Amino acid sequence: MFTRRSFKHVYKYLDYSRKREVILQNHIKVSSIWSYDKSFASSIVKVNEKRQMKQRFAAKLVDSAPKQIQPYLKLMRLDKPIGTWLLFWPCGWGIASAAAPGCVPDPYMLALFGTGALIMRGAGCTINDMWDRDIDGKVERTRERPLVNGEVTMKQALMFLGGQLSIGLIILLQLNWYSIFLGASSLGLVVIYPLMKRFTYWPQLVLGFTFNWGALLGYSAIHGNVNLATCLPLYMAGVCWTIIYDTIYAHQDKTDDLQLGIKSTAIKFDQDTKVWLSGFASTMVGSLILSGVMNNQTWPYYTAVALVTTHLASQISTLNIDDPSDCSNKFISNSKVGFILFCGIILGTLLKQSDKNKSKEYTKAIRVPLVS
């Protein structure tokens, strides 16, 4: 039988067990918070180490340039060519989609648009830095930009921007009049995009409209008009693609952005980022399929779309939005998406002619017995 003393012992034991459990839970919470902070800090260190130790060819090229022009090359982000590629690929898609069956894209147009992408991306970065020079000084990643550290003044940046836009205009004037007006109409988007993060959580959408204008312009540069049935789905696919990669990119700065009141889809989507990006990826793939159907594409194109789908699925499923290093790597990998689709359009267009020839030969083979 239990006595009063035995009940006291049981009560003390239960009370001790409860206290021990609470202490263990608090210890686990503190340990998890510490490990998260430690991993987050180490990921930032990894990003900085990679940027310092693994300089790419473009960065080395900028560093080897004369000291007087280095700030201007950095202002137009010549040391970070990923943005130029992301701007060029939609142009390449449009030019390749406009190629005649059995033909490769016009190499002159590809070179012209490649140069234009380099110049206009630089102009866009210059405009962005002119708008954001006060904000950039408060963000760790952008603290050393030329307009922030004083290497370039606002007057010098404005003159440099004028030079870039003049070269861009010369390139644009090489196209037909339809394309000249179409290209000039995108300048408004280039100017207002940097302001959007102050007013809306969807600046990535505006960037998508801006960066993928080349899908329409590239097609019109070949045909003198835009085939909406082919180009509009291609354009919308590019817009969704931009929202995906720039949301990933924005997750690198979300802590600073929250403190400064800067808006982005990364902040809006937050922990639901993967769900949102999956939706945009599905829309992108559906739009690419529709564009291919409207353009009578062949199996290499759809194989490329399948590869793009696989890449996006892997990218989104393995994304760690709290790891700046992972976000940076995922963002840069999107250049492969543009390249894969570009190759798919070219190969699919080349196969159109061979399929057409096969159908002609088949028709002749049937007609011969009928004539004889």
Automatic annotation (TrEMBL):
Catalytic activity of the protein: all-trans-decaprenyl diphosphate + 4-hydroxybenzoate = 4-hydroxy-3-(all-trans-decaprenyl)benzoate + diphosphate; all-trans-nonaprenyl diphosphate + 4-hydroxybenzoate = 4-hydroxy-3-(all-trans-nonaprenyl)benzoate + diphosphate; an all-trans-polyprenyl diphosphate + 4-hydroxybenzoate = a 4-hydroxy-3-(all-trans-polyprenyl)benzoate + diphosphate
Requisite cofactors: Mg(2+)
Top-level enzyme category: transferase
Gene3D superfamilies the record matches: UbiA prenyltransferase
Cellular component GO terms held in the UniProt record: mitochondrial inner membrane
Membrane association type: Multi-pass membrane protein
Compartments it resides in: Membrane; Mitochondrion inner membrane
GO terms, molecular function: 4-hydroxybenzoate polyprenyltransferase activity
Keywords per UniProt: Isoprene biosynthesis, Membrane, Mitochondrion, Mitochondrion inner membrane, Transferase, Transmembrane, Transmembrane helix, Ubiquinone biosynthesis
Protein name: 4-hydroxybenzoate polyprenyltransferase, mitochondrial
Gene source species: Rhamnusium bicolor
